[in-house]
Amino acid sequence: MSKPQTHAFQTEISQLLDLMVNSLYSQKEIFLRELISNSSDAIDKRRFEALTDASLLNDEEELAVIVTTDKDNRTLTISDNGIGMDHDEVIDNIGTIARSGTKKFMQAIESNKSAGDDISLIGQFGVGFYSVFMVADKVTVLSRRAGDEQGVIWESDGKGEFTIGESNKAAVGTSITLHLREDESEYLDDFRLKHIINKYSEHISLPIKMLGSVPLDEEGKPKEGVEAELVAVNTGTALWARPKSEITDEEYQNFYQGLSYDMEPPLSTLHHKVEGNMEYISLLFIPKKAPFDLWNRENKKGIKLYVRRVFIMDDAEHLMPNYLRFVKGVIDSQDLPLNVSREILQSDRDVKKIKGRAVKRILDELKRLAKDDNDAYQGFWSEFGQVIKEGMVEDTDNKDNITPLLRFASTHSGNDEQTVSLDQYVERMSDDQDSIYYITAESYQAAKGSPHLEMFTKKGIEVLFLTDPVDEWLVNSLTEHNEKPLKSVTKGDLELSDEEKKEQEEAKVELSSVTEKLTEVLNDRVKEVRLTNRLTESPACLVADETDAGANLERIMKSMGQDAPTSKPILELNPDHPIIKQLNVESNSFADWAQVLFDQAALSEGAQIKDPANYVKLVNKLLVA
Ligand code: ADP
Questions:
Q1: pLDDT number for residue 33
Q2: Is 143 within 8 Å of 90 (Cβ atoms)?
Q3: Both ends of the chain: CA-CA distance in Å?
Q4: I want to staple 207 with a disulfide (CB 3.0 to 4.6 A). Which of 112, 232, 302, 414 is the partner?
Q5: Could you read off the pLDDT of 417-430 as tens digits, one per residue?
């Protein structure tokens, strides 16, 4: 055999290892959960690959994870007969290629050193293996990939380098030996190990075995020449396949934790066995808290697909739409073929039905919560509301099921918390109000301070604040509710009473020279200048034409690096405002007033102005004039 070679860890991994080696975290025991979970994944993979290449698995072989200790040599070994890794895979997986989560994980634990629980999130970031260096000063990995003749040996003390060479590992699979540090003897204690396995790995649907005790002779001493046998320390059955009535809350929670690495219990657990033409089991969880990568578009979705208890794939995107990507769980089909591929899933009618029902279950449950447990629902909404809103655009078939889930802040809600439902809004509407009014803006503050609200506030009309970026898309698909159209307060004309119309006509005549001259002076900045009764305090505001995108959407699109269809706004004037009344078309400063009014209107709705320095100069000039 050739000599082992030494490699340096990739820089970020080295940094992570430093953190592990020097760690004082209280939850070191989670390394065992990480290793067992890796073993379980590897066994799932072997079973899956064997579906298309039967030579990879011998029917006689029992698939299991085995945990053993050697007290004399102070080692703990976790072995599996999973898929194994070849030389290159070992190098990639544990050494030279950093996972995208490496840095994020380090930031998460560094930023919050006191929270002992954080270390436990390591699995969520895809770097769980390295947690072994919290308890071991040397780690040996022996692995042989299914189908390969030769195995590999990897060794490291976690200090910058590892060695890798060939090995004559007899069996397929991976075996990881931890040379425990002096102060970590507790992980040699079978009782302690069993406790940890039960705490974290009960959901693993494979046997996890440890050596039992040797049978005793008549005198109560271990029988000579008889070896202890391996016995399973977990139930090892698929939790979801067991009858609901026999599963405790704690078991559900443990299972959920195994899937999500979320320390909090889930908000809801939905477990259903469906029988009839299509048979399957679904066990779905709605989390309480959003995961760190909720906004990562490449984020894996949380559903694992099984076919008759055989794991088929993670991240089963065809079983859950994108806007419900935070839902975790398992769907186990009785009818799909074992060799089902992503392509088949995409077009399979049964899969579409399963997905449809799963989505319906989640939405129904959220509706139920919104009705029966408002506090819990508000908690959910503040974590996931923005994602649910995506559903209005992504899943138009379910629009009517999503609409009752929506919550907004409004002129009547008192703070920036999104608590107002559309039904509530409609209920509060007065008889003569025929539209649902909203304002889209960059933030709650910008919406609240917007001059567009002045007349609505005066008349006591409620306006919804739509301040999440997704809201611009939301209002495109949510055009009405209970037959009441949704209308932006910044777009189009206002409905006026006859008296108001008359007043406006008079003012129009009176100020016609002002509006004309302003249109001329601001020609390249505005589409039109006109009078409004939208305003009671401000002199002017900007509105978009009914058919234009609007300033907020243009801002969002630009910030996403997309081409925004720039449209010129309409400048509206408050005919009752002293500044407007005093505007003199003959005056030398008229052009300066025009620019200042325009910039002010933009500023007051939270927009940026093109040339702030010039604005300040003009204002100062007018102040001393
Ligand atoms: P994660 O399991 O989240 O991907 P880890 O750091 O725990 O992150 O493991 C890195 C990779 O190493 C795994 O994705 C897997 O490919 C490989 N690996 C780890 N343990 C085993 C094992 N027991 N058998 C086969 N492959 C393994």
A1: 87
A2: yes
A3: 93
A4: 232
A5: 999 999 999 999 99
Q: Which CATH architecture has domain 406-488?
A: 3-Layer(aba) Sandwich (3.40)
| Cα 31 to ligand 1 centre (Å) | 13
Spell out the residues 6+ positions from residue 295 whose beta carbon is closer than 8 angstroms to its own.
none
- The residue whose C-alpha atom lies closest to atom 19 belonging to ligand 1 is 38
Q: Report the nearest atom of ligand 1 relative to the CA of 45.
A: 25
CATH number for 239-372 (one of 3.30.230.80, 3.40.630.10, 3.40.1190.20, 3.20.20.150): it is 3.30.230.80
pLDDT of res. 297: 61
| CATH code for the part of the protein at 498-623 | 1.20.120.790
Atom of ligand 1 nearest to the CA of 80: 23
3-state helix, strand, coil in the chain (%, to 5): 45, 20, 40
pTM for this model (two decimals) = 0.75
How far, in Å, is the centroid of ligand 1 from the Cα of 551?
A: 48
What is the whole-number distance in angstroms between the Cα of residue 37 and the centre of ligand 1? 9
pLDDT 10s digits, 502-528: 888 888 889 999 999 999 999 999 999
CA of 183 to the centre of ligand 1 (A): 26
Candidate from 14-18, 24-28, 118-122 with smallest mean pLDDT: 118-122
Which fold is adopted by the domain 5-232? Heat Shock Protein 90 (3.30.565)
Residues with CB under 6 A from ligand 1: 34, 38-39, 42, 80, 82-85, 93-94, 123, 126-129, 174
| Domain residue ranges of the chain, discontinuous segments joined by + | 5-232, 239-372, 406-488, 498-623
Q: Do domains 239-372 and 406-488 have the same CATH topology?
A: no
Flag whether pLDDT at 120 surpasses 80: no
List beta partners, residue 337.
none
What pLDDT was estimated at residue 407? 97
Minimum CA distance residue for ligand 1 atom 12: 93
Instruction: List residues bridging with 284 in a β-sheet.
Output: 270, 329
Separation CA 625–CA 622 (nearest Å)? 5
Q: What residue owns the CA closest to ligand 1's atom 17?
A: 93
